[in-house]
Amino acid sequence: MPPPAKTRLRRYDPAKTRAAVLAQFGLVRTAVESLTPDQLALPTRLGDWTVRELAAHLTMAVGTISRNLDEPAPEKAELALLEWPFATATRAGQISEDTRALAASTEPAALYEQTAARIADRLPAAPDDRIVTTRVGPMVLADFLVTRCVELVVHTDDLNDATGLDIPYDRQALAACTRLLADALAAKSPGGATEVRIPPYAVVQCIEGPRHTRGTPPNVVETDPLTWIRLATGRTSWAAALDEAKVSASGERADLSALLPVMS
Fold first, then answer.
1. Total domains in the fold of the chain
2. Same domain for 137 and 18?
3. For the chain, how far is it from start to end, CA to CA, in angstroms?
4. 144 with 254, same domain?
5. How far is CA 250 from CA 194, 195, 247, 254, in A?
6. Structural contact between residues 197 and 248, judged by C-beta atoms closer than 8 angstroms
7. How far is it, in rounded angstroms, from Cα 17 to Cα 160?
8. Positive or negative: CA dihedral 163, 116, 153, 87
9. What confidence category does residue 56 fall into, taking pLDDT thresholds of 50, 70 and 90?
10. What does 190-213 look like in DSSP terms, one character per residue?
C-alpha cells in the first residue's frame, strides 16, 4: 500500500537511527543472555512461539542488516519507508518458519554474539543511501534501519510481557517506532478530522472530515508510546485500552477501532 500523495514524509537522522538499533539490540542481548532454560521455554503472546523463538527472531531481524549488505546492491529502491508497515504481513509465514529453524539450530547466547559481531563488521562502513534487498523489496539502508527500530521495540515489549523482565527502551528507538506507526495510521486513513497525540514523540492527523486549523481539535486521541505501539500492532485492542484508561478519545471521529491494527 503506497502512502497517499499528500502524506508528509518524516525525516529520520541516520546517525541516530544507527545508534538506536545498536543500543536496543545491546539491551535485548544483555537480557536474553541472563535467561534460564525455564524462562526460554515460557510461552509468548505470539501464537505458539516460546521465548527462545522470540529471542531468535530478534537476532534474525537485526542480522538481516549484515546479510543484506553482503548481497549485491539493487539498482534502485522499490519500497518506501511508509510502505513497509503494510508489506510485512505477506511474509509472516516464511518468517515464522525461518525463526523456528534458527531457534532450533543455535543457542541464544551464540546467536546474539554472532549477530553483534557481523553488525559491527559490516554496518559502520555502509553508506546511508546504499540500497539493500529485503524480504519485502529493495530499500534504502537508512530507511531499513528505521524498520529495525520497530522490530526491536515491538519485540522487546513482547519479551517483557512473556518474561516479566523490564528491558529498557532506547529513547531514539522508541521514538522511531512510535513515529513510523503513527505516520502509517495517517497514510491508512488520510484526512484532518482527528488528531492523534502520542507524547512526547508524535502528533498526526487522520480520518476524512472537516480539517482542524486552530484552537482545540474537536476529535482527539491521546495515549502513551507503548500503548500506541501495542494498538498499532494488535497486541491490545481499542476497547481494552479504553477500559484500562490507557487511551483517551473525545469527539465523534475519535474511534480508531476500525483502523487498528495498522501493522500485523
1. 2
2. yes
3. 14
4. no
5. 9, 10, 10, 6
6. no
7. 23
8. negative
9. very high
10. --SSEEEEETTTEEEEESSSPPP-
Kindly state whether residues 20 and 71 are assigned to the same domain: yes
> Do 100 and 147 share a domain, yes or no?
yes
Containing structural domain, residue 100: 14-174
Does 184 fall in a domain?
A: no
* 4 confidence band (pLDDT: 50, 70, 90): very low
Let me know if residue 6 belongs to a domain.
Answer: no
Query: What Rg value do the Cα atoms of the chain yield, rounded?
Result: 19
Residue 243 lies in a domain: yes
Is the CB of residue 4 less than 8 Å from the CB of residue 204?
no
- Phi and psi at 140, nearest 5°, equal -70, 135
Q: Same structural domain for residues 201 and 77?
A: no
Q: Within a 10 A sphere around the Cβ of 74, how many other Cβ atoms?
A: 16
Q: What would the pLDDT profile of 10-50 be if each residue is shown by its tens digit?
A: 999 999 999 999 999 999 999 999 999 999 999 999 999 99
Position 235: which residue type? R
- Separation CA 226–CA 224 (nearest Å): 6
Beta strands in the chain (DSSP E): 131-132, 139-140, 194-198, 202-206, 220-223, 247-250
User: Cα(182)–Cα(178) distance, rounded to whole angstroms?
Assistant: 6
Same domain, 50 and 155: yes
Residues 6+ apart with CB under 8 A from 43: 49, 50, 51, 162
